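Class prep. Protein, please:
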Amino acid sequence: MKISVLGTGRLGCALARDLASTGNRVTALSPSPPASEQVPALWMRCDAVTGEGLRAGLEGSDVVVYSAWSTQPKVAKDVAALGAVHAARVAREVGAERLVLLGPAGLSEVCKSIGGRARHGALAAVAERGPALVTLNLPVLFGHGDALLSPWIHRLSAGHSPRVPGGKHWIHPLWIQDAVRVIRLAIQGQFDGQRLEVLGPERWLVSTLVKYVCELEGRSPSRIPRRLGKELEAIIRDQDTADDDWERFNLGKRCRVSDWLAGRGR
């Protein structure tokens, strides 16, 4: 299959690597090159919000995966809504069979994040303008190179105390490769027309997770947890309102963050 992935964050890069490893032709689209240099995909410059580069990037695609998202309040609404609508329209124009729309868990018309409300409000327009649609909402992701745990472990291994954001927030971290497994099913057409939400197998208070990480590394955190940005805090709070559709996928157990930290995958 030819699969285009819009957005080259950690999930987009992990997805591109996985899809390419199974023989798919993968194109990664973003305003700048992928964060990871080891992404076996053709990169094309694209701005989903303005639509610049979309047509050329999506030409010939069988499936389009829209994974672009922003935690910057000034652009979160446009990336979540305008970008998704543009991607849906162009995906239909180039004859793509399916659009897989990724976003954070807990989206609704009353959710706390700006981007979440914008994405929810745009879903009808996306479905109307695009090919077969799957909406898949995910929580905080963890695993190799993730944005949550990897910076802490890096600082600890260098002999420094971790700077930890959002100590009083609850999170439901999901292993990146478990998220990729679900997305693969959506790409294959198993959930057309459905909106699905997946949470991680454990619910952690961030401050408790910090202590656990530090105990495993034989150190103690010395910095007071700092606040997250407002949009990211809102996205994390919204996760507690999400459903969990994991059992519908028949994919077995999810990787637990405690198991991963204790030695699996490290």
The mean pLDDT is 89. DSSP finds nine helices and eleven strands in the chain.
